[in-house]
Amino acid sequence: xxxxxxxxxxxxxxxxxxxxxxxxxxxxxxxxxxxxxxxxxxxxxxxxxxxxxxxxxxxxxxxxxxxxxxxxxxxxxxxxxxxxxxxxxxxxxxxxxxxxxxxxxxxxxxxxxxxxxxxxxxxxxxxxxxxxxxxxxxxxxxxxxxxxxxxxxxxxxxxxxxxxxxxxxxxxxxxxxxxxxxxxxxxxxxxxxxxxxxxxxxxxxxxxxxxxxxxxxxxxxxxxxxxx
Length: 228
Known about the structure:
alpha+beta; 2 domains; 7 helices; 4-stranded antiparallel β-sheet
């Protein structure tokens, strides 16, 4: 059992590690992704696991812009509320041994070189809010069903040409109206309501309209979170 309270679900760390691997990072010292070696402090989150996955990972990416790439990964981990250790702002304390790799975990401690602080924790609240917007189980895991429903709502927007890649009835279920296969006034109104909920989840003004700013925010969120 690791020291301290677990603030983030293990699946949130898995989401981050899948993003890191897709973007060419090495995910080390984490059960489910790599071997874990007996080199860590007693009580380290590296030794804990849940559902076949570890609760801490070390992230590396070799190359001429190693530091910049690690800071990018750090930003994504913090976006998900995870605990991080990296010598970004200095090399005080535990960050001194994290100059060339990023440590990420589910615990209550973070340090970026100037002093320790408490990460946000709580899991992937953005995905949870998006799932509620398209009426799918709010489990904070952006899987295939979540992705199809969000993509269906986006495709049905005027900006994207009012398309229905999975059929009109599927999109109607995503926005919460009877799935009669007719995209009429009630369906369009429900679509705008769902779009406004998506905007709120992504920190955008809730206009109910898919515009370039919403597409950009959604694309960023999908890149980080989707497992589809």
